[in-house]
User: Which sequence fits this backbone?
């Protein structure tokens, strides 16, 4: 017998899916609910949105489905050899965790699956590498701040005189520790080497750079710049595989190539409207965050959609 939908799903007034409670063991992240199905995991991308390390009480309608679609877009490119083909030539083909985006029968037998359609990934289990693998092709965000302070990012020295959002001569790898609470911490690669060993750290670095470079070429053909991104890897059957979401607006900065101008902040296809509204509000960042106004929700949803549509235009 199926569990009643009102006991399984919680939506906000805009129709955003904020919570799932499937009858399987669950762990909850800021955006995704991850269920253990025994031989695999079921990842549900909700419409939750976070900012400044808080999950907001308002969601962004359709966001979870969009993130899932974009991740599948990139995983399909890996399967076709458009991303990571050089690794296959070198004898170490790039693998990822995605098995299917169809709702498994064992789930459909227990709950109404309509709210899950288009927003789930069935994935292989893996031991998660405890580092975010960050690649930066342009100078923005925490990298821009670090450069202004010290002229380097995570121990990588950069030339003097660079502007905000300027393209780097070549992409750089700047790992970060994975924090259970609060911010991830950017660290030099020496910290990764010390914890994981030189061979594994170098494999993570070289693989991350190759995936970024290949993806950036695909995006550039669609008029989209990938300013930076973070990858996650896991170990499955003794091999490193690409896991989690990949190259979405929640893990990357996407800019429109036809609007790009170094020396200033760029219009990003992500949650910048949310960040700016919160920064200009009376919220103290030490108490529960306030609900988002309807216009901020609508503008943010439109910005996410625009990035996805630009990226995937003409690829169907």
Assistant:
């Amino acid at each position: 017998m199926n569990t009643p939908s009102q006991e399984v799903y919680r939506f906000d007034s805009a129709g955003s899916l904020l919570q799932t409670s499937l009858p399987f063991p669950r762990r909850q992240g800021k955006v995704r609910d991850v269920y253990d199905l025994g031989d695999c995991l079921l990842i549900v991308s909700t419409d939750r949105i976070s900012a400044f390390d808080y999950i907001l009480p308002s969601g962004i309608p359709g966001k979870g489905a969009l993130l899932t679609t974009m991740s599948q877009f990139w995983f399909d490119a890996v399967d076709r050899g458009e991303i990571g083909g050089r690794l296959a030539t070198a004898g170490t083909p790039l693998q990822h965790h995605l098995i299917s985006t169809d709702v498994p029968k064992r789930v459909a037998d227990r709950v109404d699956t309509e709210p899950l359609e288009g927003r789930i990934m069935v994935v292989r289990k893996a031991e998660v590498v405890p580092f975010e693998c960050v690649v930066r092709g342009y100078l923005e965000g925490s990298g821009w701040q670090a450069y202004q302070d010290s002229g380097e990012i995570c121990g990588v020295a950069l030339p003097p005189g660079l502007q905000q959002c300027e393209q780097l001569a070549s992409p750089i790898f700047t790992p970060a520790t994975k924090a259970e609470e609060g911010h991830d911490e950017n660290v030099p690669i020496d910290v990764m080497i010390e914890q994981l060993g030189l061979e594994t750290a170098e494999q993570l670095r070289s693989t991350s750079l190759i995936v970024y470079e290949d993806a950036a070429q695909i995006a550039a053909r669609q008029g989209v710049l990938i300013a930076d991104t973070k990858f996650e890897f896991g170990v499955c059957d003794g091999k490193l595989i690409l896991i989690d979401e990949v190259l979405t607006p929640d893990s990357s900065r996407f800019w429109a190539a036809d609007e790009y101008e170094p020396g200033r902040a760029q219009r990003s296809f992500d949650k910048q409207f949310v960040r700016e509204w919160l920064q200009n509000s009376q919220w103290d960042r030490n108490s529960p965050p306030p609900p988002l106004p309807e216009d901020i929700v609508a503008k943010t949803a439109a910005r996410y959609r625009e990035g996805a549509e630009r990226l995937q235009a003409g690829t169907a």
The longest helix spans residues 198-221. The radius of gyration is 20 Å.
